Amino acid sequence: MKDNFLIKIETWHKPDMGDQANVHGLDPEQWKKTEVVYIDIADKTQVDAKDYKPEEDPAIFKSEKTGRGPLGPNWKQEKRLFTKFHRQLFCLIDKWIGLTMEDIRRIEEETQKELDEMREKDPVKGSSASED
After folding, report:
1. Does the pTM exceed 0.70?
2. How far is CA 64 from the centre of its chain?
3. With left for phi above 0 and alpha for psi between -120 and 50, is residue 126 left, alpha or beta?
């Protein structure tokens, strides 16, 4: 891919299972040209056979470090974590847009040091899929 490659994906998390039409409020002409694609990362039938790797299947993967997973058939009902993550990602755009790989590596190193220090003195913190 060269410098002129661009992919634009617009998402909007709504309090439903994706059944609202035209959530971006596009004009009728734009809306006619729009393709809405529903993605279920745990549905193996949405992956070409040539692209399928069991180790990349969220329906069977279980994180050894967090204990999260696998994603069951109703994983989308558990939207809290995904909503929180995408909200953070969007609102932090000014911090990551335009970063070079050198910047990213430096931030990774700084974050690793901070996390190591936190692990030494503080209890476990972070997000959990459970409601309690």
Report:
1. no
2. 19
3. left
72 token code pair:
């069951």
Contact (Cβ atoms closer than 8 angstroms) between residue 129 and residue 84: no
pLDDT digits (tens, 9 = 90+) for 32-44: 988 887 778 888 8
Exposed e or buried b per residue across 32-61, where buried means at least 16 C-beta atoms within 10 angstroms of its C-beta:
eeeeeeeeeebeeeeeeeeeeeeeebbbee
- Tokens 């040091």: give the residue: 113
Number of residues assigned to the chain? 132
Encode pLDDT of 49-107 as tens digits: 988 999 989 899 998 888 888 988 877 766 566 677 777 777 888 888 889 999 999 99
Distance CA 130, CA 128 (A): 5
